[in-house]
Amino acid sequence: MAYQSFEDLEVWQRGCRLSVAIFETFERCRNFSLKDQIERAALSIPCNIAEGSERGSTRDFAHFLNFSKGSCGELRTQLYIARKLKLLPKSDFENLIAETKEISAMLEGLRRSILAKNRPKQERVRRRILKA
Known about the structure:
Blueprint: H1 10-25, H2 32-54, H3 58-84, H4 90-131
Helix pairs in contact: 1-2, 1-4, 2-3, 3-4
């Protein structure tokens, strides 16, 4: 997938929409510590995609995609807890959980894709070193 900027990536766009949905969903939540953690985890998803993309190296980008994927898991866990505490209606919970799972899968697919594209270059360099 060719892209000019992280803004072109569907996974970044969906991460932004998820963050907005989280902020709107928990706007009136009075459990401030959980609300803060949930919002931070959600915000971290697209922010890590952007930061990794802007770093300029495939390795850094893949590393930050892992951070973003980790934030998806963190957010999903917090949503389960919020649901158990009855802070989240079932329909919102189900939609948000589904979206975090899809974004997580997209992040893993993008990470594998960029690493696979970089692998042939690494193999050429490794062969040159071994021949020397």
